[in-house]
Design brief:
The complex is a heterodimer of chains A (458) and B (583).
Chain A lengths: L50 E6 L6 H4 L24 E5 L24 E2 L5 E2 L5 H9 L8 E4 L12 H4 L2 E5 L2 E5 L5 H9 L9 H18 L5 H21 L25 H17 L5 E5 L18 H5 L6 H22 L9 H4 E6 L15 E4 L12 E3 L17 H11 L23
Parallel strand pairs in A: 1-8, 1-9, 2-11, 5-8
Antiparallel strand pairs in A: 2-10, 3-4, 6-7, 9-10
Helix pairs in contact in A: 2-11, 4-7, 5-6, 7-9
Chain B lengths: L12 E2 L1 H11 L15 H9 L6 H7 L19 E4 L2 H12 L1 H6 L12 H7 L4 H20 L2 H6 L11 H14 L5 H17 L4 H14 L1 H4 E4 L2 E2 L6 E2 L2 H13 L5 H8 L6 H11 L3 H14 L20 H21 L6 H4 L2 E4 L1 H7 L10 E5 L13 H6 L8 H12 L24 H9 L2 H15 L24 E3 L3 E3 L2 H10 L1 H16 L8 H13 L4 H7 L4 H4 E2 L4
Classes of the chains: A alpha/beta (458), B mainly alpha (583).
Chain lengths: 458, 583
């Protein structure tokens, strides 16, 4: 069974900004003895936790209004990114990079920026994910150190009505190896997310020994069935076994040393036919921040909206779905209004992290690397040239702080046929090396990277 | 012409209670009394009627068709691989209801389904469970076990010892007898020993309380792959050269397909007694199962997926343009389509193609208002009502559920509507747009209709390849806006045209005429068979299954496209009974 380490916060810490915008104070025990003399590592030598959040918004941007005019250290937020001002110092922006996916069928190839693999075509508008996403590769490296390996959340519940299918669109995060992947189905309801992160720690009858024993019996049944299956189903049963192992570890992990957050009441049900997006973003982000601060998990993925989904941004009175609007051109008013709204929601998440204090001082953006991107540059033409990548948080001084705007090549001014250089996967490798310094590559095939983007490093 | 002449003299009102039940029955993941059909005895009744003894062989000789199962001799098939597929949510809940009663089903909380190829069953056959799902199964098992201990009546029907003053020996009864029902086959001795040990271990933990051990024993059974996954790997079959489902696997596949849940004890007895060995026996049993209300719920569940009805409630519409659109209206639309299916399949045992040609529909007050039709005589009820002649509507493709879901929030979409017909009704694959093509339409201007704009689009050869086979179909519905209301002009005032044609397929002046073309196309019934394979067996049809699909489609045609007949015959097909090596 996987052993689960635990840590405690170094001093009485206030977690702010949690749950519906209300200020919530969470008393945390003082366990200075667990840190070294400088408070820079655990007494046992283990590094203080570094966290990773993968964030996805769909259907691209308007390049002209999104990319800042300046590059390097002295850059200003663009019009569409202006809502990120409160966290601007924590941002490293990467533009002008080429997504090197081998095939294109609309939107699907854009998801290569999250894994560094080309999709596997499955007919029609169906593709299957080509390889594990970066959050799951990072979780492979560090997930066993916490009670929960990783958590996946989703805001908009709308699906594609255009027939997009296959595992690429099923989930943002994919775990495993190429050819043997398990989509990590994101939870839409913050109540479900709470149960997954903290439900195991709520007081109750201590039946951990029996739950563990029951799961041993379940594993025996899995093993009994496995030899009779072919390769694919054996892999599925192996995944089932792995998850039972991890559930057993979770059941037997020690509760975190912080108080548990109050269970959220937001269930992400439509209100009057409209999605409660801001409330759900707040609840999801607050739970992730709490789980990071309490070291319940160190890896999360955040799916704001699926590509091609029928999501309508009702909160800004959008007249139609964001994806439908994207195909009316890069300058369609509904589309143009939707992009700053999407950045505002990303900013909401980042501010919740920034407003949550971290062990040893600072806040969660000091100890987290956020990798945020979308599935195309110009939505109307599904271009995968110049897909923007926003890095947020410096990850314990790993990334530049204040951050820079790295631009691989200046824009040619053409929305539907933009130019690009370099490789978006290089940014994935940069992130991976923060968690696994020995990593030498990310992805496979044409999009594979063996050379991290160093321009954004501290 | 296929247009039906239904009995329009009477317009029966459908009780609201029935409507509510139908919707609940069709709702995936519904934990109300949806799975609590009163037809639990169907299999048992049939067992009594048709299988007084374990052999059942006399049935075959009586019916004069004592052919061996596995399909007609000489029928070429290379079956799809065997393997495991998870029970989908609605199957899990209905199975818990049968096994442990409605109280247990009410608290069942399995993971949400993850459809692939448009169907939950395909996702359940292809995807591995993630950590959240495994944990949700554990939580669900605990809740079900607690509910069962609070009300053990149904469990006691299988393991009588659990009520009264059970002793430790009862763990063996539960493992053996309840385990057989849950795993849909007899347990091996080692499996029984394992489960008894779990019970005893839990009892010791619970200071000797029997219920403590029972709770963990039930939790173990309900989390085991033997329960969660339908195991369909068969045995080597010399006749076909492939593998043939054993009698328990066949009984399970039949129960899941026909009743939407695992087999009951009587069905397992039939399997054990060799009473599912011939096609005649299988057909007779399937026909008996079709008499159950659960069969109606199961088929409604299939159509909910096939016609994308379950997704309808999450569609958004522009509130200014469509102020009457609401979740409640969307639910009414979904119900309308399910009622049409119900009427054709169960009330009339009619021609499947009437789904596309019916000159009537079912409306409540809200739908009547939407369509501009007379409302039902009794408020709150759905009434079977003829389509207004002037609107040229026919069948499902004129119903608001289709017209709404295959539209954007702002306007109708001939492309989406046409694509659904090509892909889901005719089973034509539509390739993605060629690389480098900007798929965006030019802006809609005041002097152009949407149709005219799309026709300009079609002049580009790189667009015409796909849009040439989708958009003309969609033009037939230009008289219906993005929520299915009738119109003669677009919002800007320009008149709409519903004319269309596709070389080699047909031409039409309106939706009614297109419906006739669709219904007459031989691909339509075959595509329905394909979708049954996807939605029920959990895989996309394979080239090796083609001849067997043709044979089943022929049987379907010979029955004048009776869905009930198709459902009774499907289990006799090699498509249903044979598998290749496990995947």
């Amino acid at each position: 069974m996987t052993s689960v380490s635990r840590f405690s916060l170094s001093r009485r810490t206030m977690l702010r900004g949690l749950f519906g915008g209300a200020t919530v104070s969470v008393g945390l025990p003082i366990l200075e003895c667990m840190l070294n003399a400088n408070g820079t590592a655990f007494a046992g030598g283990e590094a203080l936790p570094l966290r990773f959040l993968m964030y996805y918004w769909a259907d691209g941007v308007n390049i002209g209004q999104f990319e800042p005019g300046q590059v390097g250290a002295d850059w200003a937020l663009s019009n569409h990114m202006s809502s990120l001002a409160p966290v601007k110092d924590y941002l490293n922006l990467c533009t002008g990079l080429q997504n090197r996916a081998a095939e294109r069928i609309t939107h699907h190839e854009g998801m290569t920026v999250f894994n560094g693999y080309s999709f596997n075509y499955a007919g029609g508008l169906d593709t299957d994910s080509g390889g594990p996403t970066i959050d799951q590769v990072i979780a492979d490296a560090i997930g066993a150190r916490t009670a929960v390996r990783s958590v996946q959340v989703r805001v908009s519940k709308r699906e594609s009505t255009d027939g997009d299918g296959g595992t690429t669109v099923t989930a943002l995060s994919h775990r495993g190896t190429p050819g043997n992947l398990t989509p990590q189905i994101p939870q839409a309801s913050p109540v479900e997310v709470f149960n997954y992160l903290f439900g195991n720690f709520t007081p109750g009858v201590d039946d951990r020994s029996e739950r563990t024993h029951v799961l041993d019996a379940v594993k025996a049944d899995v093993e009994r069935l496995k030899p009779r299956m072919g390769t694919i189903d054996r892999q599925r049963l192996d995944s089932h076994l792995t998850n039972i192992d991890e559930l057993q570890a979770k059941i037997n992990s020690m509760p975190p040393s912080c108080q548990l957050p109050a269970a959220p009441t937001e269930t992400n049900m439509d209100v009057g036919g409209e999605e409660p997006i801001t409330s759900v973003v707040d609840a999801h982000a607050s739970l992730i921040a709490y789980a990071f601060a309490c070291d319940v998990t160190r890896v999360a993925s955040f799916l704001f909206k699926k590509f091609v989904s029928s999501t309508v941004y009702d909160e800004i009175n959008a007249s139609q779905g964001h994806h439908a609007a994207s195909h009316l051109g890069a300058n369609d008013p509904t589309y143009l209004a939707g992009i700053p709204y999407e950045m505002e929601k990303l900013s909401q998440v980042l501010q919740i992290l920034m407003n949550t204090e971290e062990i040893g001082g600072g806040n969660l953006l000091d100890s987290t690397i956020v990798y945020a991107s979308t599935d195309c540059s110009t939505g109307a033409s599904h271009s995968i040239e110049r897909q923007p990548i926003i890095l947020a948080g410096h990850g314990r001084n790993y990334l530049a702080y204040p951050g820079v705007h790295y631009q691989a090549t200046p824009w040619n001014g053409n929305d539907n046929s933009p130019n690009a250089a370099g490789n978006t996967s290089d940014v994935l490798l940069t992130c991976l090396q923060a968690f696994d310094p020995g990593a030498t590559s990310v992805g496979g095939g044409a999009p594979q990277s063996n050379s991290p983007l160093t321009d954004v490093l501290a | 012409m296929l247009r039906t002449s239904p009995r329009l003299s009477s317009l029966p009102s459908v009780p609201l209670g029935f409507v509510a039940a139908l919707l609940l029955l069709a709702a995936p993941g519904c934990k109300d009394d949806s799975a609590n059909g009163d037809g639990d005895g169907t299999e048992s009744d049939s067992a009594t009627d048709s299988n007084s003894g374990p052999s059942g062989g006399s049935d075959a000789s009586e019916s004069g068709s004592g052919d061996v199962t596995g399909g007609d001799a000489g029928e070429e098939i290379e079956p799809a691989p065997g393997g495991i597929r998870r029970m989908v949510t609605r199957e899990y809940v209905a199975t818990i209801d049968m096994l442990l009663g409605p109280e247990a089903a009410a608290v069942a909380a399995p993971p949400v389904d993850t459809p692939q190829d448009g169907f939950d069953a395909v996702g359940a056959a292809e995807l591995a469970l993630d950590s959240v799902a495994v944990e949700q199964y554990e939580t669900s098992a605990g809740l079900i076990a607690d509910a069962t201990i609070a009300n053990p009546t149904r469990l006691a029907e299988t393991a009588a010892c659990v009520v009264g003053s059970p002793d430790a020996a009862c763990y063996e009864d539960v493992a053996r007898d309840f385990g057989r029902l849950a795993f849909r086959r007899p347990l091996e001795a080692a499996e029984i020993d394992l489960l008894v040990e779990v019970g005893e271990h839990g009892q010791a933990w619970g200071d000797g309380a029997f219920e403590a051990g029972l709770r963990f024993q039930l939790m173990a059974i309900l989390q085991m792959p033997s329960f969660l996954y339908l195991v369909e790997i068969g045995q080597p079959d010399a006749e076909s050269g492939f593998r043939k489902l054993d009698s328990y696997e066949l009984a399970t596949r039949m129960s899941i397909f026909l009743l939407g849940r695992g087999p009951d004890a009587a069905m397992l007895d039939l399997a054990q007694g060799g009473a599912l060995d011939t096609d005649a026996q299988i057909r007779e049993q399937a026909q008996a199962m079709l008499g159950s209300p659960q069969a109606r719920a199961a088929l409604a569940g299939f159509f909910d997926e096939y016609l994308r009805l379950a997704d309808l409630e999450t569609d958004s519409k522009n509130a200014e343009l469509f102020p009457t659109y609401s979740v409640e209206l969307a639910r009414s639309m979904r119900q309308e389509s399910l009622l049409l299916v119900h009427d054709i399949v169960w009330e009339q045992d009619g021609d499947y193609r009437e789904l596309f040609t019916a000159d009537y529909t079912f409306v409540n007050d809200a739908l009547a208002q939407l369509y501009g039709m007379p409302g039902p005589a009794q408020a709150g009820l759905y009434a079977r009502t003829p389509w207004p002649e002037a609107q040229h509507r026919a069948g499902y493709l004129s119903q608001a559920s289709f017209l709404t879901h295959q539209s954007s929030s702002l306007r109708n979409s001939p492309t989406k509507r046409g694509r659904f017909i090509q892909q889901s009704v005719l089973c034509t694959d539509i390739p993605p747009p060629p690389q480098g093509v900007d798929p965006s339409l030019p802006p809609l201007t005041e002097d152009l209709t949407l149709r005219e704009l799309l026709l300009m689009h079609l002049e580009d050869p790189s667009c015409a390849g796909c849009h040439g086979v989708t958009d003309p179909l969609g033009f037939a519905f230009e008289n219906y806006d993005a929520i299915g209301a009738y119109r003669t002009n677009e919002l800007g005032g320009l008149p709409v045209s519903s004319q269309g044609e596709i070389d080699g397929f047909g031409s039409w002046e309106n939706a009614q005429e297109l419906a006739d073309v669709v219904a007459a196309d031989p691909r339509t019934s075959k595509c329905f068979v394909n979708n049954l394979i996807r939605g029920e067996l959990g895989h996309r049809e394979t080239p090796g299954e083609s001849a067997a699909i043709d044979a089943l489609d022929l049987t379907f045609a010979e029955s004048e496209f009776s869905v009930q007949t198709l459902m009774a015959e499907f289990p006799t097909s090699p498509l249903f009974q044979l598998v290749d090596e496990p995947k």
